[in-house]
Amino acid sequence: MLVAIDGPAGAGKSTVARALARELGFAYLDSGAMYRCVALAALQRGGGSLPARPGALGEIARAVEIDPGGGGGPVLLDGHDVTRAVRTPEVSQAASVVAADGEVREAVVAKQRALIAGGRWVAEGRDIGTVVAPDAAVKVFLTAEAHERARRRAAELGADAELVLAEQALRDRRDSTREHSPLRAAPDAVTLDTTGLGVDEVVGRIAALVRDGRP
How large is the average pLDDT for residues 16-42? Predict the structure, then answer.
């Protein structure tokens, strides 16, 4: 069984998905960590910059071995623990660019589908319910007011909220208008606005959907 949770940055996907997986006893897939791994590998191979050669990002995405740590373990890139490395601001920015590359998305989606082919999973990202697993048993699209999302992200990073808000607007526009797998709610997804809601409340609502067997 698969629970797909999609939504924009700062909506609470990662926190909610991890907690939901623990609540249900499911494995957890952070799809964003996989794109971050590709971005980190690209930066490493490019000497700190993303390679400009056409097709280079796709080649890297196909070549790397990624373990997103779905069982609660570390994120591994070619066998190396990169749990902390993939969360740096530089990798985060590069991941947003990398994720818009069609060849990268094709390669990563194939890896994601292979991971979730068996067992019980809570998978979160931006295209789980629309592209990666359109047949997911339960689909949820998490959202929140823009200022609330920026506030959460700023608190997590220890950054200025207004700066995060500006960067968030750019990322939202890039995610929603990109050619490959644009951010949008699946037609049969349950949309849940997390503004003003605690994590436990959001988890409880989604867990109820799972237990009721709601599509």
Answer: 95
